[in-house]
Write a structure and sequence with these properties.
The complex is a heterotrimer of chains A (320), B (709) and C (265). With 320 residues, chain A is α/β, with parallel strands linked by helices. Chain A contains 9 helices and 17 strands. In chain C, the strands form 3 sheets. Chain C has a 9-stranded mixed sheet with strand order 11-10-9-12-8-1-6-7-13, with helices on both faces. In chain C, α4 packs across α5. In chain C, 53% of the residues are buried. Classes of the chains: A alpha/beta (320), B mainly alpha (709), C alpha/beta (265).
Chain lengths: 320, 709, 265
C-alpha cells in the first residue's frame, strides 16, 4: 500500500435522532491529530438524518463533512461498507471513532478487513510518530503504544477530550454509496429503554449511589434528582435493592456489580465490606454520611459528615 | 385363674373382667396382629437405614457404652430441660408415665402368660405386690395425663410458635390425643370397675381410679350401669391401645425408637468435625436421596418436629428462608414420597424445582445452635454440608462466595490480597516477630485471614502480639506461608479446597519446631483441633493436583497442643506472666461466646477469666455460653449479603443493650469474624452511642498499658 | 450446533504493585479466567444443557500455564479445549487484535462452529475488539456487547440484545454463523468446583501451534509496540468538606465540576 494522505477521518456517532456528545469530543481529538500530521480533518456521518447531522458535525477544525445517507439507525454492516469506501476515498493516515458500544461493533471489522493496526479505548494521543496512551488491568496502569505502521485505526474513550462546540466552516459533501445488501446480515429491530432495569452501572462515569441512610422509598426521588442534575447514573447498596426500591442491576458490591466510575458519590452508605469490594476501584469517591466513622470514610477522597437530607438538596441547587 | 386368687381374698383384680372367653381370644388375636404390624413397621424402617450409605463417622463402636449413655440422656430428659423447664417437665412426665405403664402392662402379661399359663404357677399379681403395683401405676398414670395435659395446653391454648411448622400435620394431633385418650381411658376403666365391684377397700391404693369411681357415682352412675359400661370401656381402651401399638412405626410415636436410636449413635463432635468425602471423583454428595448415609436417614426419622432448632436458628430469626427442622423434614418427606410414587426431583438447586432451595442452604451460619438444641441428637450440619457439597459440585454458588473460593485458590487467602503482604499488620509493632520457619518456638501462632488483612482485626493481631511480647513468650508465625485455614469453605461444601489448605498447613507445621499451635480465630482453632487431625492424607497421595507432599494423619497422638489464644494466655495470666493486678480496668462489659469456641469446642471460661483479670465487671447476656446467638459471620455469612431484618449482629447487640443488666459499655468478643460483624451491626443497627466492640486482647493490652502508665 | 467459546486467561494485578520497565513485576501478578469469558462459557454450557448445542469447544490463545483456566471452563461443562501458542507468541510483548484474530480464525477454520461466543473484553489488555475482528476475518455475522441471546437454529438466526450506553438496549437479529461478544450479567456463571476441575483432567485439551494453523510469525508480531507503562495518579486520603450543609455542598460542587461532572457537554 502506498503512503497514505496526512488526513484524519473521524466517524461521528448518533443514536435515535441525536448526534451523540462523544462526536464533539472526537472532533477535538481529530483536529489535534490532523494538526500534528498537517492533514485535513474529515468527519463522516452515516445513516439517519444526515443533513442535520452533517450540519451539526460541522465544528471548528473540521475540513470536510461526508454524509452517507442509508437507513436510519446504526447498522454495523452498513457502517463497515460505508467506512471502507470512505477510507478508500479519503485515504487517511488515521481513522478515528468513539470507543462506544456501537463503535466497537464495526471499527474492529473495518480494521480487520483493511488490515490496519487497531488501538482501542485510547485516552491520549501523540502524533508523529503515533503513540497512543491507553489503560490496562482495569485502569491500574497506563501504557503507551507505538504503532509501527504509517496508518492506524483508533477508538477514543468518551470524556477524555473536551468537546468542540463552535461551528466550523467545513464543506458538507454527500458521499454516494451503493450498499451491497447481500453483505447486510443483521437488522436492528428496535430499542428498549430499560428504565434502569438493565442499566449497566459499570459503564457509568459518574454514579450516585444510595444506601440505607435514605430511610424510605419515597426519599429516593431526591437521589434521582441529584443524578439528573449531575448527569449521573443511580446505583445502590444491597439493602435498597433487596427492599425492591431499585432494580438488581443497580446494585454495587460483592453480590452486585463491581464499578470503577470516575466519580462515585456514596449517599447514606455506611460501606460494609461487601459494598466496598464493589466500588473501591472508583477514581474519586465522595461520601455523604452523618457518621464520620462509617467505613466508607476510610476509602473516600472527599467526605461530608452531614445529614444527606440537607446536603443533597443543597447540592442539587448548585447544579440547577 | 385370676378368679381363684380373687376368691382367696387376697387383693387383686380380674384382667379380663366381664370379657368372655371368646372375646379374650379375640383380644389375643388382635394383640398378635398389632405386634406383627409393629414388628414389620420397625423392621421396614431399620431396613431402609441399612440401605443408606455407610457413615464416615464411627457411630456403632462401643455399643454397650453408647446405649447406657443414651439411656441416661433419654431418662434424665436433660436435653428437654435445656432452655425449657416446662418442656422438660412435660416430656419427663409423659415419658416416665408411659414407661411405667408399659412396664406395668409387661409385668401383667408375664404374670398371665408366662407365670400362670406357661409355668402353671399361681399369680404373683396379688397381695402387697398388687397394691404397690396399683399405687405406682395410678400415680405415674396421673403424671402421664398431667404431662399430656401440659402438651395439649402448650400446643392448643398457648399455641407455642415452634410447635407449629410447615410439617405439623394430623399425626401430631392424633399422637397427642391418642395418648391423652389412653391415659384418661385407663382411669375411666378403673373407676367403672371400682364402682361396679362396690369399692373393694384395698382398691383405695388405686387412688385415681377410686376418685374416678366416686365422681361417676356423684354423676349418677349406678354400679349396674358402671358394670355394663365397663365392657364398652374395656374394649375401646384395648382397641385404642392395640391400634396405637400397631401405629407406632408408621408415624410420630416411632420417635420413641428412632430418637432413642439416634441418641445411641450420636457423634459427640457433631458439626465441629465434619465427615470427609470419598476419594472417588465420581462420588456424588446429594444428587439423590440415596447418597445420604444411614445416620442421616435416621436423623430424619428421629425428628419429632419440636422446633427447638428452628427457634434458636439465627438465620431464621433474621428472616432468611432457613428453617433447620424443615430441611430435615423436607428430605424425609421427599424420601417417603419417592418411595411411594418413584418421582425423582433434584435434592438441592437454585430456582425452586428442588427439594431444598440453594438459598436455604446459603442462609445457614454453621453456628451449631440447631445441633446443640436438638434433644434427639440430629446432626443438621452433616446433612447441610452434604447439600452444600452438592451445590458446589453443581456450581450453584453465590457469586460472593465464588469470589472467595477463587481468592483462596489463587492467592491463598479469602481477601484476594497478596500473600506477600500477609504479615504487614506487624510492621508497626515495636518488635520483630519470629519466623517460625527458621527458628524453634514454643508457640506457633496461626494469625488467620482477618487479623492479617482486615484493618479492624489487624489491631487485634497487634494487641495479641503485644501480649505475647509482654509475657515474654517464645512465639513465631509463618508469614506468607500461612494461608486461609479452610474451616468455613469446608462448611460451604468446597471439600477439595479445604483438603488442599489442610495439606498445605500440616506440611508447613511439620517443617517447623514448636510445641503448641495457637490461633487468633476460633474458626482456625476448630478446624486444626478437630478436622486436620481426621484427614488421612494418604487417601489423596495419588492426586496430582493436591499441592502438598504429605501422606500421613497429622497430630494423631495429640503431641501438638492446639489452643485458642485465650486458652494460652489464660495459662500465662495464671502463671503471673502478664503481671496484672486485676484492678486495672473498671468497665462493665458483656462477653459474646463465639460459636466456634463455645458450642463447637466447649471453651467458655478462658475468655471470661481474662476479662475478669483486667478488673472489668462481666455481666452475662440472657443467651450466653452454649445458648450464644451467632454474629451472622459463620458458614460464609461474612461473604454473602442477605436482606436480614434484623441482622443477627444487630439482634445480638440489642440483647446486650436492652436485655442485659444496664450499663454495658463494652461488648467483648474473641473472634475476628465476630468483630467484623458486630462493628458492622453497631453502625447499621444504630448502636454506636451505646456500646463499643472490643476484643479480649484489646482489653488486656489496655490493662497492661494502664499498668505501664 | 457446535459452539466455540474463545476463553482467555487474564493477568491480574495486586492492589499494590511495582512497575519494572515495560511490565509489572511478576511478584504482583496473578492469573484468572477472564470475567467476561466466564459469562460466555456459561451461555454456551446452558445452550448445551438446553439441547441447542451439541458440542462446546473452547479456544484459548495462551501459554501452558493457562491450562488451569481452561480446565475451569471444561469443569463448567465445555466438552474439549484447544490451546494455541508457541515461542513466537511468548516473545511478542503485546499480542494485538490482529494477531489474536488470526490465531482464533485458524481455530475457527478447523472447527467450523455455528456460533462463536467470547467476552466483550479481556480484563487485562481490554481491547474489546477481538470478537468483531474475528467475525470480519472469517466472514460471518457478529454482534458486540450482547446481554441477551435467543437462538433460532431452524431459521439460522440469533436474536440478541445489545447493551448500549445509558440504559438503552438494541434489539438485533443476526444471521448464523455469528460471533457474539458477551456482556457480564447475561447469566449467572456457575462455579467450577475443584472436584469438577479434577474430573475435567480426562477431557481433551489439545495444543496446536500457530504454524499448524498456517499463521505467519509476522502476523503474531503485529504492528503495536509497548513503549511505556506508568501508574496513574494515586488516590489521596479523604478531604473533609466542612461547614453548613450549603457550604459543604458548594465545596463539593466545585470538586465535582473539576472532574467534569455536571458540566454541560
Amino acid at each position: 500500500m502506498s503512503a497514505p494522505s496526512p488526513d484524519v477521518l473521524a466517524i461521528a456517532e448518533h443514536r435515535r435522532g441525536d448526534l451523540r456528545d462523544v462526536s464533539d469530543q472526537l472532533v477535538t481529538a481529530g483536529s489535534e491529530l490532523a494538526g500534528a500530521t498537517g492533514g485535513d480533518l474529515h468527519v463522516a456521518v452515516v445513516s439517519g438524518d444526515v443533513e442535520a447531522f452533517g450540519r451539526k458535525a460541522n465544528r471548528e477544525g473540521v475540513d470536510v463533512v461526508h454524509t452517507v445517507a442509508d437507513g436510519e439507525e446504526f447498522n454495523h454492516d452498513v457502517y463497515v461498507q460505508a467506512v471502507e469506501a470512505l477510507v478508500e476515498e479519503v485515504d487517511p493516515r488515521y481513522l478515528l471513532a468513539p470507543n462506544s458500544v456501537n463503535g466497537l461493533d464495526y471499527v474492529p471489522a473495518v480494521a480487520r478487513r483493511l488490515a490496519l493496526p487497531l488501538v482501542t479505548d485510547v485516552v491520549d494521543i501523540e502524533a508523529e510518530p503515533l503513540v497512543a496512551t491507553r489503560e490496562m488491568y482495569g485502569g491500574k496502569v497506563e501504557t503507551e503504544i507505538e504503532v509501527a505502521d504509517d496508518r492506524a485505526v483508533l477508538t477514543i474513550r468518551a470524556g477524555e477530550w473536551p468537546a468542540t462546540t463552535d461551528t466550523g466552516d467545513a464543506s458538507v459533501e454527500p458521499f454516494e454509496l451503493e450498499i451491497d445488501e447481500s453483505r447486510v446480515g443483521s437488522s436492528v429491530n428496535g430499542f428498549e429503554e430499560v428504565g434502569g432495569g438493565d442499566v449497566d452501572i459499570t459503564e457509568a462515569d459518574v454514579l450516585v449511589s444510595v444506601g440505607r441512610g435514605i430511610d424510605d422509598e419515597e426519599n429516593l426521588e431526591l437521589i434521582h434528582d441529584l443524578a439528573d442534575a449531575l448527569g449521573a447514573t443511580v446505583s445502590a447498596s444491597r439493602p435498597i435493592v433487596d427492599a425492591g426500591w431499585l432494580e438488581k442491576g443497580r446494585q454495587v458490591g460483592q453480590s452486585g456489580k463491581v464499578v470503577t466510575p470516575d466519580v462515585y458519590i456514596a449517599v447514606g452508605i455506611s460501606g460494609a465490606v461487601q459494598h466496598v469490594a464493589g466500588m473501591k476501584g472508583s477514581e474519586t469517591i465522595v461520601a455523604i454520611n452523618t457518621d464520620p466513622s462509617a467505613p466508607i470514610m476510610d476509602i473516600a477522597d472527599y467526605a461530608i459528615h452531614d445529614d444527606l437530607f440537607e446536603v443533597v438538596p443543597a447540592l442539587i441547587e448548585e447544579f440547577e | 385363674m385370676a378368679i381363684l386368687a380373687a376368691a382367696a381374698g387376697s387383693p387383686t383384680r380380674e384382667t379380663f373382667r366381664g370379657i368372655s372367653g371368646v372375646e379374650e381370644l379375640l383380644f389375643y388375636y388382635l394383640a398378635a396382629v398389632a405386634v406383627v404390624v409393629l414388628a414389620y413397621g420397625v423392621y421396614a424402617r431399620f431396613a431402609r437405614y441399612a440401605e443408606g450409605v455407610e457413615d464416615p463417622i464411627p457411630r456403632l463402636d462401643d455399643l454397650g457404652e453408647r446405649t447406657v449413655e443414651a439411656a441416661r440422656i433419654a431418662l434424665s430428659n436433660e436435653s428437654q430441660f435445656n432452655r425449657d423447664l416446662y418442656g422438660g417437665l412435660m416430656h419427663a412426665f409423659i415419658m416416665w408415665g408411659f414407661l411405667t405403664l408399659l412396664i406395668a402392662t409387661t409385668i401383667l402379661a408375664v404374670d398371665l402368660e408366662v407365670w400362670q399359663l406357661l409355668l402353671g404357677r399361681n399369680s404373683f399379681w396379688v397381695g402387697d405386690f398388687y397394691l404397690g403395683y396399683q399405687f405406682v401405676v395410678d400415680a405415674m398414670g396421673l403424671l402421664f395425663v398431667v404431662g399430656i395435659g401440659m402438651a395439649l395446653y402448650r400446643r392448643y391454648w398457648v399455641r407455642k410458635d415452634r410447635l407449629w411448622g410447615r410439617h405439623t400435620s394430623r399425626e401430631d394431633t392424633l399422637f397427642v390425643w391418642v395418648l391423652f385418650a389412653l391415659g384418661v381411658g385407663g382411669f375411666v376403666l378403673e373407676g367403672l370397675r371400682i364402682l361396679a365391684t362396690g369399692y373393694p377397700p384395698f382398691e383405695v391404693v388405686s387412688f385415681v381410679g377410686w376418685g374416678t369411681a366416686l365422681a361417676f357415682e356423684a354423676a349418677g352412675v349406678t354400679p349396674d350401669l358402671a358394670d355394663s359400661l365397663h365392657w364398652w370401656a374395656w374394649w375401646s381402651h384395648s382397641l385404642l391401645a392395640l391400634a396405637f401399638v400397631a401405629w407406632i412405626p408408621y408415624a410420630k410415636p416411632f420417635h420413641m425408637l428412632s430418637s432413642f436410636a439416634n441418641v445411641v449413635v450420636r457423634d459427640e463432635h457433631s458439626g465441629a468435625r465434619l465427615p470427609g468425602i470419598p476419594a472417588d471423583l465420581e462420588a456424588t454428595s446429594a444428587e439423590s436421596i440415596d447418597d445420604f448415609t444411614w445416620s442421616e436417614l435416621l436423623d430424619q426419622d428421629a425428628c419429632t418436629k419440636c422446633g427447638r432448632c428452628s427457634s434458636v436458628c439465627p438465620a431464621k430469626a433474621a428472616g432468611r428462608p432457613l428453617d433447620p427442622r424443615d430441611v430435615i423434614l423436607d428430605l424425609k418427606g421427599y424420601r417417603e414420597q419417592r418411595a411411594d410414587d418413584g418421582g425423582e426431583q433434584p435434592i438441592v438447586a437454585d430456582g425452586g424445582s428442588s427439594v431444598i432451595d440453594a438459598e436455604t442452604m446459603e442462609s445457614c451460619l454453621s453456628c451449631l445452635a440447631c445441633v446443640d438444641s436438638c434433644p434427639v441428637e440430629i446432626d443438621h450440619l452433616n446433612s447441610f454440608t452434604r447439600l452444600n457439597r452438592q451445590l458446589v459440585d453443581q456450581g450453584d454458588i453465590d457469586p460472593g462466595v465464588q469470589d472467595v473460593f477463587q481468592n483462596v485458590m489463587q492467592d491463598g487467602n479469602t481477601f484476594g490480597n497478596s500473600q506477600r503482604s500477609r504479615a504487614d499488620w506487624a510492621d508497626s509493632l515495636e518488635f520483630d516477630l519470629t519466623d517460625a520457619r527458621e527458628q524453634e518456638v514454643e508457640y506457633l501462632w496461626y494469625v488467620g485471614d482477618y487479623p492479617s488483612y482486615d484493618d479492624r482485626n489487624r489491631k487485634v493481631a497487634r494487641s495479641l502480639a503485644r501480649i505475647f511480647d509482654a509475657a515474654d513468650v517464645s512465639v513465631g508465625i509463618l508469614f506468607e506461608e500461612e494461608k486461609y485455614d479452610g474451616n468455613d469453605v469446608r462448611r460451604l461444601g468446597e471439600e477439595f479446597l479445604f483438603l488442599e489448605l489442610a495439606g498445605h498447613h500440616v506440611e508447613s507445621f511439620e517443617a517447623c519446631e514448636f510445641e503448641t499451635l495457637v490461633c487468633t480465630d476460633p474458626h482456625s482453632y476448630n478446624t486444626f483441633e478437630n478436622e486436620y487431625t481426621e484427614v488421612d492424607f494418604a487417601t489423596w497421595a495419588d492426586d496430582p493436583m493436591m499441592p502438598f507432599d504429605y501422606d500421613e494423619q497429622w497430630n494423631r497422638d495429640g503431641e501438638i497442643e492446639v489452643l485458642h489464644w485465650t486458652q494460652a494466655v489464660e495459662d500465662l495470666v495464671s502463671e503471673g506472666r502478664l503481671d496484672l493486678a486485676g484492678d486495672e480496668l473498671d468497665y462493665t462489659v458483656t462477653y459474646h461466646d463465639p460459636c466456634h469456641l463455645g458450642r463447637y469446642n466447649d471453651e467458655y471460661e478462658a475468655p471470661r477469666e481474662l476479662i475478669r483479670a483486667t478488673g472489668c465487671e462481666l455481666v452475662e447476656m440472657p443467651r450466653n455460653r452454649a445458648n450464644s446467638f451467632c454474629c451472622g459471620g459463620g458458614g460464609g455469612g461474612l461473604w454473602m449479603e442477605f436482606d436480614d431484618d434484623p441482622k443477627p449482629s444487630e439482634e445480638r447487640l440489642r440483647e446486650a443493650i436492652e436485655d442485659t443488666a444496664s450499663g454495658v459499655e463494652k461488648f467483648v468478643v474473641a473472634c475476628p469474624m465476630c468483630t467484623t460483624m458486630f462493628e458492622d451491626g453497631r453502625k447499621t443497627g444504630g448502636f454506636e452511642e451505646d456500646v463499643e466492640i472490643v476484643d479480649v486482647a484489646e482489653l488486656l493490652v489496655e490493662a497492661i498499658d494502664r499498668d505501664a502508665a | 450446533m457446535k459452539v466455540l467459546v474463545a476463553v482467555t486467561e487474564v493477568t491480574t494485578v495486586d492492589d499494590e504493585f511495582e512497575i519494572d520497565g515495560l511490565a509489572i513485576d511478576d511478584r504482583y501478578l496473578g492469573a484468572d479466567m477472564n470475567e467476561w469469558d466466564e459469562y460466555a462459557v456459561e451461555e454456551a454450557v446452558q445452550l448445551a444443557e438446553d439441547g441447542v448445542a451439541d458440542e462446546v469447544v473452547t479456544a484459548t490463545v495462551g501459554p501452558e500455564e493457562a491450562e488451569e483456566t481452561i480446565r475451569q471452563a471444561l469443569a463448567k461443562g465445555a466438552d474439549r479445549a484447544i490451546r494455541v501458542w508457541d515461542d513466537d507468541c511468548a516473545a511478542a510483548d503485546l499480542l494485538d487484535v490482529g494477531a489474536k484474530t488470526a490465531l482464533l480464525a485458524g481455530v475457527v477454520a478447523r472447527e467450523e462452529p455455528d456460533l462463536v461466543l467470547t467476552g466483550v473484553q479481556s480484563g487485562d489488555a481490554g481491547f474489546m475488539a477481538t470478537g468483531v475482528s474475528l467475525a470480519a476475518d472469517v466472514g460471518c455475522q457478529w454482534a458486540a456487547v450482547v446481554n441477551d441471546l435467543e437462538l433460532s437454529p431452524e431459521e439460522g438466526t440469533a436474536d440478541v440484545r445489545r447493551e448500549l450506553e445509558g440504559g438503552v438496549e438494541e434489539l438485533t437479529t443476526v444471521e448464523l454463523p455469528a460471533v457474539l461478544t458477551i456482556q457480564t450479567g447475561i447469566n449467572e456463571p456457575r462455579y467450577a468446583s475443584l472436584r469438577g476441575i479434577r474430573s475435567a483432567q480426562s477431557k481433551e485439551l489439545e495444543h496446536v501451534t500457530p504454524g499448524e494453523l498456517g499463521i505467519e510469525p509476522a502476523t503474531i508480531e503485529g504492528a503495536l509496540r509497548l513503549i511505556g507503562m506508568a501508574e496513574p495518579d494515586v488516590e489521596s486520603e479523604a478531604t473533609v468538606l466542612e461547614g453548613s450543609a450549603e457550604e459543604s455542598a458548594a465545596e463539593l460542587a466545585a470538586v465535582l465540576r473539576e472532574r467534569g461532572v455536571g458540566v454541560e457537554g
